[in-house]
Design brief:
The complex is a heterotrimer of chains A (83), B (463) and C (505).
Chain A lengths: L2 H17 L20 H15 L5 H5 L4 H14 L1
Helix pairs in contact in A: 1-2, 1-4
Chain B lengths: L5 H16 L5 H16 L1 H20 L5 H27 L17 H16 L9 H9 L1 H4 L7 H9 L6 H34 L6 H32 L17 H4 L5 H19 L4 H19 L3 H19 L1 H11 L1 H18 L8 H11 L14 H20 L4 H7 L2 H18 L13
Helix pairs in contact in B: 2-3, 2-6, 3-4, 3-5, 3-6, 4-5, 6-8, 9-10, 9-18, 9-19, 9-20, 10-16, 10-17, 12-13, 13-14, 15-16
Chain C lengths: L1 H37 L1 H9 L5 E5 L1 H4 L11 H8 L5 E5 L5 H9 L10 E6 L6 H4 L4 H11 L4 H9 L8 H14 L13 H9 L12 H14 L8 H16 L2 E6 L4 H7 L2 H20 L3 E4 L20 H18 L16 E2 L9 E2 L4 E2 L9 E4 L8 E5 L9 E11 L7 E8 L4 E7 L11 E10 L5 E9 L6 E12 L5
Parallel strand pairs in C: 1-2, 1-3, 3-4, 4-5
Antiparallel strand pairs in C: 6-16, 7-10, 8-9, 9-16, 10-15, 11-14, 11-16, 12-13, 12-15
Helix pairs in contact in C: 1-2, 4-15, 5-12, 7-8, 10-11
Classes of the chains: A mainly alpha (83), B mainly alpha (463), C alpha+beta (505).
């Protein structure tokens, strides 16, 4: 499994736990529109968990530009590479 | 210049004709001039303030560059000035003691300041996030800030949506002109026939709500929600239609709000540009930072965001209560999402209808804050609503004119939300000629014969 | 291209027809309720137009009553009482001014064929900016849109679109202040203040004090109101002068007799509150108005000093009158109307009192003797009239023995009748014969020509009024017509009223 796929898988785990949805399966094109439970309340909590899990820090500017899971994977990957 | 007045329609007509006749290279300047004159028409110094705010924002935007230390100060400093300016004017409205009579405050509250200040803050914030390149042209930027169709009461347009349109102006398109005219017609109908007919009724009832039978008071509260929608969305349609006459597309502020089945959906359909502004620039940054405190932090962010929505209407306790009520319900919804989804699965359509009715009732109730000034007054009105005297029927106190008003108000929402799907001009374009022709003629007849006449300013112009 | 032109023309015609049809529907079914809401006086005018002979246009002065009034009759009602055979239409509204009257006059159409006289009240206060920039202004501006003599549908559309001047309260205050500051005062002697605003400001600063040295706030306020109401020069440039000129032009064009009734002001109070300077201004404005419109051939009734202070209702100078005041004004206006049409009027100096003795039509009731001259040759009403000539010179005679309670009262004998003459009759007289308790008799003859121009070959109303002094000991009053010429003169519907005259008027 590539680093990228690993990141996607871990994000899926975080989201399954955070949204209490064990059957959730997201891909890079998935956005909040596809997941009803992924609302503005859960979004912030999920981002904090993602930050904590991958030991990275996102800025607001970076967060607001995220549209899909793919964008999130890009961001995590870039942050990890930097660190 | 009210949007439903002859001077505005004349001004619009002349500026549209001149716009399309002059060479393209002068059109931006011409529109900018028209916009500044439009503002100056109300009070000359309003236009000076607008120009000053625009230039400040432009210059700050040029100097905000992520990663640079000074740029942070430029961002913080300019946003602080803008917010203080807005707060100062809002506070002066309070100080002028004109919380009941909008007419008295027209010289105090500069036209459109709530809207263009938020636009400016949005532009500077996007600059600080590096999601938007700095605008290089003062003319284009001034046009963005001052564009007259949206200056009075929004929409709060994002620079990222509007500025590109100023770079490549649309070519003349007669279909577009026709469609825009239809949108203006529908806006005029909503404002003049629906909102203006309801306004005196509501004003009359809320002058002494304690003396009105509970049934009539309840009905009036529901009508008040329709009146606010008709007034504001009517304005919005005229604004959007006016912009489209010049080939500019603005963001719609409404998406059939009374089809919302819960309050979070409602805020995705009502005053969309304001709620999106608060979501993107207040809630998202706040909640992200507060998320470290778990759900409590998120909830606080939500309350704060709705407090901003509330006091944007005015720095008064009643608007604060307005925001808090909506924030509270939203938090409750968030916490009960699982149960609600289960009910939706179990009850199906019945649950959807119940949600729709409840959301409408809740919103109607909160519009009471436009007429009451304290919790006690608010409570008294609600108590009065429950006093359904057996001996008093609503029909006893209604005239033929009132029945006509009720007919218009009652049929308006199903037609607007159901038949036209929130867009009359799109419906016309998808209908056959005869149907469309009949609809247009009916609208014109209603506007000519059945418009309300009392002098009612656009509600959201006062914010 | 041709097809396009034809198509466009057809569309334009269709739209025009549609608008005409819509205008018809609106005028027929919806306009009256709009008028009732926004321009009720126009609706009143429509209702009165066919029947009225006199149109009285007034403001609050017409109908404001005092709680102590014995009657709530308006001035126009009191005038109507003076002329029971006419239709006196009174249309008034609080705050109305010449601009509103002008619109009403412009709306007179062919239905107003019977209108002979137009009485327009002139209220000096309406000329002041204080009166113009008031709470009624926006509502009046709305009314004016509907009252304009244009297609009603167009008026409604303009009203919908707010096509009228609207001021917020703040703007009205601003404009009022501007007007007061720009109103320059000119006196033929040195005067302390250059403008009305300065004068008002000066007086407001403790001009009057109570006995204990405190500012007499009530008096100061009343004085300031007076200055703002009357402290101005009415000139040719005043907006209301243009309106009054227009009314005069319309009246002249339509052959309607125009009367401007300058309403009484409480001159005593104005003098007491502010002094001779303000009285001077009021006086010069009165002179300006009376002179200007009399030059134009308009009858101007100068009633400015008609009333005493106790005939005004309030303590501030305004045009609200007690019933006594309203009666005086009505009497004054009626007296003017009566000079023009003497056979039409009856001087009812105490309008609510019925005549002490009334004959009804000739030949009816207990009063009539000598029915020899009655002929069926022609009649004004019924089948017969009195044909008077050398053969039968005396008409039916009204004879009334005065009741004891009237014996020492001042009386007014009023007789009216219709005459029909084929040629001029110098020998005709209406005779009032008085018999006294001491056996003496006096005769008082009134020739036909005295009543004005005689119209031949038509029934013409005649009117005689004759005072009978108190303490003369009159016991019997007789009234009859006399003609001993060879050619006949017909007399019909002779009515005699004997009225008690109240003192003081």
């Amino acid at each position: 499994m590539s680093d990228r796929e690993e990141i996607l898988q871990q994000i899926n785990v975080i989201f399954r736990k955070g949204l209490n949805k064990p059957e959730l399966e997201m891909n890079e094109a998935t956005s909040a529109d596809h997941v009803p439970e992924w609302d503005s309340l859960n979004h912030a909590l999920l981002m904090v968990r993602v930050q904590g899990h991958f030991q990275v820090k996102f800025s607001i500017a970076e967060l607001v530009q995220l549209k899909t899971i793919g964008d999130l994977c890009d961001l995590v990957e870039a942050k990890m590479k930097r660190s | 210049m009210n949007f439903d007045s002859i001077p505005y329609l004349l001004f619009l007509g002349v500026s549209v004709v001149v716009y399309w006749l002059i060479p393209e290279k002068w059109r931006k300047q011409f529109l900018m001039l028209c916009s500044v004159l439009f503002v100056a028409y109300h009070h000359w110094w309003f236009s000076l303030l607008l120009i000053a705010v625009s230039l400040l924002t432009f210059e700050a935007g040029m100097r905000i560059s992520p990663g640079q230390r000074a740029s942070r100060w430029w961002y913080v400093g300019s946003v602080a000035i803008l917010i203080l300016l807005l707060a100062g004017f809002k506070w002066s409205v309070q100080w002028a003691g004109a919380d009941t009579d909008f007419d008295q405050i027209s010289w105090v509250l500069p036209l459109g300041i709530s809207y263009y200040t938020f636009q400016a803050v949005s532009y500077l914030t996007e600059r600080s996030w590096n999601t938007l390149p700095a605008e290089q042209s003062r003319t284009r930027f001034l046009l963005y800030m001052s564009f007259f169709p949206k200056i009075t009461a929004g929409p709060i347009e994002r620079a990222g949506d509007f500025l590109p349109q100023t770079q490549t102006l649309q070519a003349f398109n007669i279909q577009n002109i026709y469609s825009a005219s239809l949108q203006i017609l529908w806006g005029l109908f909503k404002k003049m026939v629906i909102a203006d007919r309801l306004a005196p009724w509501i004003e009359h009832v809320f002058t002494a709500p304690g003396e009105v039978p509970g049934s009539l008071l309840t009905l009036s509260i529901l009508l008040q929600a329709i009146q606010v929608y008709a007034n504001f969305s009517g304005y919005t349609d005229i604004a959007l239609g006016s912009a489209r006459l010049f080939g500019f597309e603005l963001t719609d502020n409404f998406n059939r709000p009374f089809l919302a089945q819960n309050i979070s959906d409602f805020w995705r359909r009502w005053h969309i540009t304001l709620s999106k502004w608060v979501l993107d620039y207040i809630y998202t940054p706040l909640s992200f930072r507060a998320a470290r405190f778990g759900k409590t932090g998120i909830y606080l962010s939500l309350f704060l965001s709705f407090i901003v929505i509330g006091i944007w209407h005015g720095i008064e306790m009643r608007y604060l209560y307005f925001g808090l009520m909506h924030g509270t319900l939203l938090v409750l919804e968030m916490n009960t999402r699982k149960w609600r989804m289960w009910l939706e699965t179990s009850l199906g359509r019945a649950w959807s209808v119940a949600g729709l009715v409840f959301t409408f009732l809740f919103f109607s109730m909160t519009t009471l804050w436009f007429f009451t000034f304290s919790l006690e007054e608010f409570g008294n009105v609600l108590m009065q609503c429950m006093r359904w005297d057996q001996n008093t029927s609503i029909s006893g106190s209604l005239s033929n004119e009132d029945y006509l008003t009720l007919f218009f108000a009652g049929t308006f929402i199903p037609i607007d939300h159901g038949l036209f799907k929130g867009s009359f001009h799109r419906w016309v374009q998808s209908s056959n000629r005869l149907t469309a022709g009949i609809a247009i003629i009916c609208l014109l007849i209603c506007i000519l014969l059945f418009s309300g006449v009392e002098d009612i300013p656009f509600i959201y112009e006062r914010f | 291209m041709q097809r396009r032109i034809i198509k466009s023309t057809l569309y334009a015609l269709a739209i025009a027809c549609g608008l005409i049809a819509l205008n018809f529907i609106y005028t027929r079914y919806l306009w009256p309720s709009d008028l009732e809401k926004y321009a009720p006086t126009l609706l009143e005018l429509h209702a009165e137009m066919e029947d009225m002979t006199v149109l009285y246009l007034g403001d609050c002065s017409d109908q404001t009553i005092s709680g102590n009034d014995s009657s709530d009759l308006a001035i126009s009602d009191l005038i109507q009482q003076q002329f029971p055979k006419w239709e006196v239409a009174g249309i008034s509204h609080n705050g109305y001014h010449a601009g509103m009257y002008r619109l009403l006059v412009e709306n007179l159409d062919e239905r107003a064929r019977g209108l002979q006289t137009l009485v327009v009240t002139l209220n000096l206060r309406t000329f002041s900016p204080y009166s113009i920039w008031n709470d009624y202004q926006n509502a009046f501006n709305q009314s004016q849109v509907l009252m304009n003599p244009r297609p009603p549908l167009l008026n409604r559309a303009l009203l919908n679109m707010g096509w009228y001047d609207r001021s917020t309260k703040a703007e009205s205050q601003e404009r009022l202040q501007e007007a007061l500051e720009s109103e320059e005062l000119h006196f033929p002697y040195p005067f302390e203040y250059a403008t009305t605003a300065a004068w008002n400001e000066g007086v407001s600063k403790g001009s009057y004090r109570t006995a204990d040295g405190q500012w007499d706030q009530q008096r100061i306020e009343a004085a300031c109101y007076s200055i703002k109401d009357f402290g101005l020069h009415v000139t040719d440039q005043h907006a209301l002068i243009a309106e009054l000129d227009q009314i005069a032009a319309i009246a002249q064009q339509r052959g309607i007799r125009l009367v401007f009734a300058l309403m009484p002001e409480n001159m005593e109070l104005i003098d007491a509150l502010v002094g001779p300077d303000l009285v001077f201004l009021v006086d010069s404005n009165r002179n300006y108005l009376t002179h200007r419109y009399r030059e134009m051939g308009v009858t101007v009734l100068d009633q400015l000093e008609l009333l005493t202070s106790d005939e005004f209702i309030e303590d501030n100078p305004n045009e609200h009158y007690t019933i006594e005041g309203r009666r005086k004004i009505a009497h004054r206006i009626a007296r003017d109307l009566a000079t023009e049409y003497p056979w039409e009027s009856s001087f009812d100096v105490t309008p609510e009192q019925k005549p002490a003795v009334s004959s009804g039509f000739s030949g009816e009731g207990p009063f009539w003797t000598n029915l020899n001259a009655l002929s069926e040759e022609r009649a004004h009403s019924g089948k017969r009239s009195a044909k008077l000539n050398k053969v039968n010179p005396f008409s039916p005679t009204f004879t009334s023995e005065l009741p004891a309670n009237l014996a020492d009262q001042p009386l007014q004998v009023e007789a009216q009748f219709f005459s029909y003459a084929e040629q001029s009759h110098e020998s005709f007289k209406l005779v009032i014969e008085l018999e006294y308790a001491d056996g003496n008799t006096s005769w008082h003859g009134f020739p036909l020509e005295q009543q004005g121009e005689i119209m031949l070959n038509t029934w013409q109303r005649q009117y005689i009024s004759f005072p009978v002094n108190a303490e003369t000991g009159v016991s019997v009053i007789k009234v009859y017509a006399f003609n001993d010429a060879p050619t006949s003169l017909f007399v019909d519907d002779l009515e005699v009223d004997i009225k008690v005259v109240s003192t003081g008027l």
